[in-house]
Amino acid sequence: MPGSVYKFEDVYSFLIPEKTPPFWVEMAGISYCNGFYHIDREESDVTVIEYVYKGTGSLRVGESMYHPGPGDVYILTERSDHAYRSDAANPWTKIFVNLKGTAVPMLIHAFRLHKKVVYSDCWALAAIFEEILSVVKKNLPVEDTMEHCGMLVF
Predict the structure, then answer these.
(1) Which end of the chain is flanked by fewer CB atoms within 10 Å, N or C?
(2) pLDDT computed for residue 134 by the predictor
(3) SS3 120
(4) Is 62 exposed, middle or buried (0-12, 13-18, 19+ CB in 10 A)?
């Protein structure tokens, strides 16, 4: 059995209140994956949005397969079955945001983002993902963190 699935990961998590607010960042960070990195979720309880800086990998959502690479963003909606794995020879480096709350699926549908999984050539979005990462690192009051991240995500 291989060791850790990361070369390094910088993760920031936020305890979810008893009553989940309409928008909540459960976790955000950056992953420097190795060739063993993999995530498998059945009926995911979280929406995941990830920006790929470099590397490649494979992503399965339901029965569909994708291969996100540099500059791509993928959105894995709550309640989806999905699995993703970093390529062994060219592993991912990616920023991720895991979201919860009733506003998340409503906004995904309102912006018609549920019609697609992988968005290619999103280089301009790197700055937004970097700002989200910067905000979660600041140790602000949690309400301020959620408000700022909410504005950036949407």
Answers:
(1) N
(2) 96
(3) coil
(4) exposed
Please enumerate in sequence order all residues whose Cβ is within 8 A of that of 50, keeping only pairs 6 or more positions apart, or say none: 68, 73, 74, 76, 94, 95, 96, 97
> d(Cα 101, Cα 85) in Å, to the nearest integer?
26
Under 8 Å between Cβ of 84 and 17: no
Q: Which residues contact 65 (CB under 8 A, 6 or more apart)?
A: 58, 59
Distances in whole angstroms, Cα of residue 124 to Cα of each of 20, 31, 52: 31, 20, 12
Q: 47: Cβ–Cβ under 8 A, 6 or more apart, which residues?
A: 75, 76, 77, 78, 98, 99, 100, 104, 105, 108
Report the Cα 51 to chain-centroid distance in Å. Answer: 7
- How does DSSP classify residue 16? P
Q: Which residues of the chain have pLDDT under 50?
A: 1-3
Q: Taking the CB of residue 152, how many other CB atoms lie within 10 A of it? A: 17
d(CA 86, CA 6): 10
Nearest to 125 by CA among 83, 74, 76, 86: 74
Q: Which two tokens stand for residue 151?
A: 């504005």
* pLDDT for position 8: 80
